[in-house]
Amino acid sequence: MKATVLGASGFIGRNIVRHLRGKSYDVTMPGRAELATLTGDLGHVFYCIGMTGNFRKYPLATVEAHAGLLARLLETTSFESFLYFSSTRIYGQASGCEETAEDAPIGVTPSADTTYDLSKMLGEALCLATPGVRVVRLSNVYGPDQSKSTFLGSLLRDLVTAGRAEILESAGSSKDYVSVEDVVAMAERIAQSGRQRIYNIASGTQTRHGDIARTLKQEGYSCSFRHGGECRAFPAINIARLQSEFDFSPRKLIEDLPSLLRAAGNGPTYSGVEQ
């Protein structure tokens, strides 16, 4: 089977490539310079291109990555399936799990801080206007070699280099974390046989910073919290659709932390990811 991974140099993209090759796909990975002239049949397309921490500094590039380039590719290429990687960040103003279901209305207030959210939603709208295109909204993805600009990636880097770390937010802060192994496996299954147009890929549970720190201390590391740190709790992500259609049973970050630490320290490889 033919597959094209767009954004293959990123954390999600390179893990998608690894997974697909393990499933005997013939994978093409166009570079940035090739995207402007890309045409023809791309097979199963995985659109992993995106801006993350730099979106405030580069808002125009963010819109181009999430929607502009996408629009041109949807117009100039053909494909067997097309999967667009969006984000559960768009649920930032949700107040409960019922408001993070895929079909629930989404509230976003336009501002410089919501350029990321709104550009992802524009990308989703373009996808939903095009037959054969599906959307996955990813939660906070973890795995070996994840970006050091993420909370968890930065925390692991500090621990393996200094043996200790300070968390700037309070112990009560929480996020939904999903394993990259779960992401790539579900993405391929959705591309092949998904019955819906949009899916949340998340763990469905919130992991508190305090629970992360407790596990790290059990592994022999020093992990403290800055006095007066802000408490930031992201909304719980509804994964009922994924569980119902694919019998999805997500991995747990707390159980994977020890092997993530070993991988970050160049020790034994994290067992959750195909090598």
From TrEMBL:
<dbReference type="InterPro" id="IPR050177">
    <property type="entry name" value="Lipid_A_modif_metabolic_enz"/>
</dbReference>
<dbReference type="Pfam" id="PF01370">
    <property type="entry name" value="Epimerase"/>
</dbReference>
<protein>
    <submittedName>
        <fullName>Nucleoside-diphosphate-sugar epimerase</fullName>
    </submittedName>
</protein>
<feature type="domain" description="NAD-dependent epimerase/dehydratase">
    <location>
        <begin position="4"/>
        <end position="202"/>
    </location>
</feature>
<dbReference type="InterPro" id="IPR001509">
    <property type="entry name" value="Epimerase_deHydtase"/>
</dbReference>
<dbReference type="InterPro" id="IPR036291">
    <property type="entry name" value="NAD(P)-bd_dom_sf"/>
</dbReference>
